[in-house]
What we know:
The protein is an alpha/beta fold. It has a single domain, classed as TIM Barrel, CATH 3.20.20. The chain contains eleven helices and eight strands. It has an eight-stranded parallel β-barrel with strand order 1-2-3-4-5-6-7-8, surrounded by five helices. Strand 4, helix 5 and strand 5 form a beta-alpha-beta unit.
Amino acid sequence: xxxxxxxxxxxxxxxxxxxxxxxxxxxxxxxxxxxxxxxxxxxxxxxxxxxxxxxxxxxxxxxxxxxxxxxxxxxxxxxxxxxxxxxxxxxxxxxxxxxxxxxxxxxxxxxxxxxxxxxxxxxxxxxxxxxxxxxxxxxxxxxxxxxxxxxxxxxxxxxxxxxxxxxxxxxxxxxxxxxxxxxxxxxxxxxxxxxxxxxxxxxxxxxxxxxxxxxxxxxxxxxxxxxxxxxxxxxxxxxxxxxxxxxxxxxxxxxxxxxxxxxxxxxxxxxxxxxxxxxxxxxxxxxxxxxxxxxxxx
Length: 298
């Protein structure tokens, strides 16, 4: 299994995409259409999310395994500490290894009620994502990534504390970070600079920038509420002005995502991580405008 760190460590910027486990057969069909449509674009990796409290654990393991075994894509599985004992976490990690998955995004995870609810560690579990990183790394040849929060995690008292937690995760053995979605480039640049200032060992750590192309007015508001991301007033006003026109909202979403991505790449971001919501159209259009799609031979 190719390590994600090997795919994102080159001189050229890369991109990756994220899917979530569908709730039913129709959703799973839509997911696999998106997987096949994006396979030809050669992303550095694709990730599959893991529901709060492990609510989608079995489906996540199965889908990630299918991607590993039936496609040319490099899959990365999510793993959260919520409601899991160390023994259960070891079991899940073993399940990933059994289906050929060796790339893991280690997350403390959100409580079942949402990111702002009280987080309570399992009595036989781990309390921090750094502990989970060490657990995964200690169980075999895994490439581990972690989450980063350009605007700060909702539970962090300030940005300095949030950066300290990120650095602790990286020093625990994580080899890269993927940010939560954001809309203001300044937040990403500030995060990157603060991490680099923490020591020479942090200066070269890849921090992939999370981007979610807007596809619906209600959907982006919900995602921003869950993630804590701030939608700039200029973006919000543009979307609200055409909220009843799905095609117009989607076009604005592509334009906003493309403009943000262009600035990120110009500032040296090593990669872009697209939150697709199991749809590939907008992401592929942004990639096309950025010139990141593979050039097909005539």
